[in-house]
Amino acid sequence: QAPWLIVPAAGSGLRMGANRPKQYLRLAGRTVMWHTLQRLHSVFPEARLCLCLDPRDSCFEPDVVPFARWQRIAGGGERADSVLHALEWIAAEEGDEQALVLVHDVARPCVTAEDLMRLHDAVDADAVGGLLAAPVADTMKRDDGAGRVASTEQRAGLWHALTPQGFRLGLLRDALMDARRAGRGMTDEASAVEAMGLSPRLIPGRRDNIKITHPDDLALAEQILAAQAS
Ligand code: C5P
User: Which residue windows are coiled coil (predicted)?
Assistant: First the structure.
């Protein structure tokens, strides 16, 4: 059974400082969005895709979507709102609350097929679900709000939360609705599930599954794609 895919792509990407959202910037001759959707399609060709877009988005071209079955979803104010809109649409289409849903940032075009398959198989076999994650390599400092170190965090046991993150439809929708009701801001799906008292599985993933955020990330992503292809 192919999973449902949600790709939140309704962000403005202000930190890139570009004249268009970062998913429409050029990366190795194509847009970031093109690469991300191709990677997902190569592993899940039969999946049904929900693509969350800003209703005012004027850059999107439907030709970029390689999936046969896909739906444009109106994004919300925060990433979690965009994902929740997609989950509500899926819930109306899909009778099975246990259907598997994978959420992947449009801004992560370097995710590999191997990581996508491993993530899928791990969350499909898990009672809670989980996320790709990479161990933190640097020593982590917390600031005092005035440019000085307040404390050093224990690095051991810290992970970067990556995407995809995969959960059952009913669980994820309940988790995100609870979070919205409680007014909790969240930057990923796992944290909403954690707030329900559950422990998502950490599935070790590649560190080069970067999220394009700052201008120099585009050149880095180009190098990563070239290295992966060689
Ligand atoms: O801004 P950031 O990189 O953290 O966004 C992560 C992902 O969430 C991006 O793929 C972005 O397009 C998406 N997003 C969204 N709706 C929002 C804000 C961000 O779909 N309101």
Answer: none
Q: Could you tell me the pLDDT band of residue 65, with boundaries at 50, 70 and 90?
A: very high
Q: What is the pLDDT of residues 141-153, one digit of tens each?
A: 999 999 999 999 9
Mutate to test the pocket of ligand 1, among 60, 79, 85, 131 (most ligand atoms within 8 A of CB): 79
Q: How far apart are CA 221 and CA 135, in angstroms?
A: 20
Please report, for residues 69, 100, 126, 192, the alpha-carbon distance to residue 198 in angstroms, rounded to integers and kept in the order given: 32, 17, 12, 9
- Which protein residue has the closest C-alpha to ligand 1 atom 6? 105
Q: Any residues with CB less than 8 A from the CB of 118 and at least 6 apart, and which?
A: 203, 205
- Check if CATH label 3.90.550.10 holds for domain 4-229: yes
Kindly provide the ipTM of the predicted complex, given to two decimals: 0.96
User: What is the number of the ligand 1 atom nearest to the C-alpha of 107?
Assistant: 10
Ligand 1 midpoint to CA 162 (Å): 13
Q: How many Å lie between the centroid of ligand 1 and the Cα of residue 212? A: 11
